Amino acid sequence: MSLTAFGKPSRLSPARRSHAVPRLRRWPRHLWMPGLALLVSLAALLPLGFIGWVAVRTGWATASALVFRPRVGELLLNTAMLMALTVPACAVLALALAWLTERSDLPGARVWAWLAVAPLAVPAFVHGYAWVTLIPSLHGLFAGVLVSVLAYSAFLYLPIVAALRRCDPALEDVAASLGLSPWRVFRRVVLPQLRLALCGGSLLIGLHLLAEYGLFAMIRFDTFTTAIMDQFQSAYNGPAASMLGAVLALCCLGLLGLEAGARGGERYARLGGGAARPPRRHRLGRARLACLLLPATVSLLALGVPLVTLARWLAAGGAGVWRLPEIGMALGQTGLLAATGAVVATLAAIPMAWLSVRAPGRLQRALEGCNYVVGSLPGVVVALALVAATVQVRALYQTVATIVLAYVLMFLPRAMLSLRASIAQAPAELEQAATSLGRSPARALWTVTIRLAAPGAAAGMALVALGITNELTATQMLAPSGTQTLATTFWAYTGEIDYASAAPYALLMVLFSLPMTWLLHAQSRRATGR
Amino acid sequence: MKFTVPSLAGIAALAAALLAAPVARAQPPGITVYNAQHASLTKAWASAFTRETGIPVTLRNGSDTEMGNQIVQEGAASPADVFLTENSPAMALVDRAKLFAPLPADLLAQVPANFRPSSGHWVGIAARSTVFAYNTKKLTPAQLPASLLDLADAKWKGRWAASPSGADFQAIVSALLELKGAAATEAWLAAMKANAVAYRGNGTALKAVNAGEVDGALIYHYYWFGDQAKTGENSGNTALHYFRHQDPGAFVSLSGGGVLASSTHKAQAEAFLRWITGKGGQDILRTGDSYEYAVGVGAASNPKLVPLPELQAPAIDPARLNSATVTDLMLKAGLL
Q1: How far apart are CA A396 and CA A377, in angstroms?
Q2: pLDDT in tens, A474-483
Q3: Could you tell me the residue range of the domain that residue B96 belongs to?
Q4: Residue of A136, A234, A393 with shortest CB distance to B165
Q5: Per the domain annotation, does A187 fall within a domain?
Q6: What is the ipTM for the molecules in this complex?
């Protein structure tokens, strides 16, 4: 799972590039930085390379027999239908919620705004668990769409709110003064300004839909990821799983291409000096109560259902489900993996983040792109590739090093984005001054720029750690023997239909995710300092 | 806010230490068990064994064919010392790849000859019976299928469930393949694709029968007994139908255990297997909440179960069960 698309400064505010920090033209002194960045990017290409290698080794005859069969068609249709229904539904819902909380005089708008983001604190497979508890017969496409919309629409709500807050209301006033009705103003002036947010958020949701295993396994809807896990759990690292993985990787690349095409090249920043005044909130009038129904229903379904289910299972399980030694061990192992992964991912992100700010160029952008592409691949594909790469190498196979490598590949974009934003705020001149005072380039970078970028690095680390805490598929496939994280233990219990014993683990994952969700919420509202 | 930044060397050393420490422990102390049996059962076995002998046991949990294929792909580099399964096909798979070490005679003697393969490369550790769990409000005993093969009939369309991705169901298919041949199995699987509702896991299938989503499900017996012993919330409306009469549906599946030829702790691995098949391990089957059948010489099963000899199971050499052909046939039928 990745958070690559939103919060990416170049996408949300294209105008920013114009006043970039002065570039360091001379690379040679820092030649080791491009070298390191190249190394990290090559490592990131490892999974894609292995998929290709497995395809070649399998041979065309076997590969085509495994790819062109009715089951793959079924899965493609399922996945396409899921996307086609979920993404627009999320967009409409997120747009409506964002408009109500940002642009209307909805009572308690600030509370509803927080409640619209809060479902992100509940991992998708916990959403699935809650709904299956509530309605045991819930399954299939529409169930999948319902639960995914509830679990993921906040990924669109956040960037839309951020974009709405940056819109200049003067544009809307001009359009209205030229005779456009309020609805047409929204369609022709506001909506185009939300285009980047809509594209980025939709991409993020699409990638999550492709990668998610637990949610769809719970509600019995087969996608590529669940089919790959089925294959893996019967044939381990067999050619059938690898070929499905290759098709899934192609779907991801297709989605990335689609989003890049839909994004367009228009400029959305305001011209001229001064600051935009805050937009006027529309009066809902007599529709206020009716409008309240929407956020209330969504919160009830997206937050009420998981929380009530959890409370119910915890009450049913009583003290017996709090097996403290076992929970303590899962907490410890999850913490260790999350901390190690976060530190390593952030260290690995430094060279590319630094290059993208100080010495951007075509080669650098291409290498950076590699990292994003791999970060958008589902965990199951990355894990399959690493299993294939290490299965015969006893020194690496089933070690913490391998699972950490998988985490780094999957979550590197999270670390890179946060780091890049704060390196951009550290003046290059300070670094140059430090070198002129006799520090070596490496020391100058470390003691000046990285120190100034520490808040961004910390935020990136937290995002990576959160991703690792809620990661299920790659952890199951790659972790050392005896590893029990919160997510895998939760999953093992639900597999035995012991929902009560699984509840404490779900609760802990939700509690860990809450602060991060709050941070995302705060960030989306900070855009104009309000 | 003031951030104190540790030195670059310090961070690098920390990262190296974090990575190197677990790498150095890639080979944990004691034995590593690849466990495809129910995690709770093997955990009970392992902790009692460690208490008695002081030998630590590290478990890696997975499913039968996943771990069988995993061991084959790992080959001589496998970190596993012992492999435990729920069903025999995965054991046969590893045995055909010649990756098991022959077991000592005293260990084999703890299990009757009909509960282990003639090769002597692995032993039975427990057994489970195929059953048809049905919703008592939807089916009367007279309406039950007389044979597993009857479920292919069009009148069962949409009315029965199974967990085709699971090793348990695949073991039942391997028995069908062994008893009736490839053509009959292929036809039955094609009918199943049309008739059956697929669930993930036997417990989920039982839950669906209980809720009345389907009339019945082809599962193993102990899911029902386990749920009855707990709260009965997933099985209160259901009963078990045993096919008997040497029908493929009366198949009793043998859980197996073996020691890997590549193990560097063979003596300890054999001690673990000897303990499981001996009194200590088999008593846990009788007294614990696994409800699987005990298979040791003279070992009694849980008194709540229908005794093994009354099940009239078909005679099948567990070593002949073929998981690879089953997977191929199921792929072909579009069930995987």
Answers
A1: 22
A2: 998 899 988 9
A3: 29-126+252-306
A4: A234
A5: yes
A6: 0.81
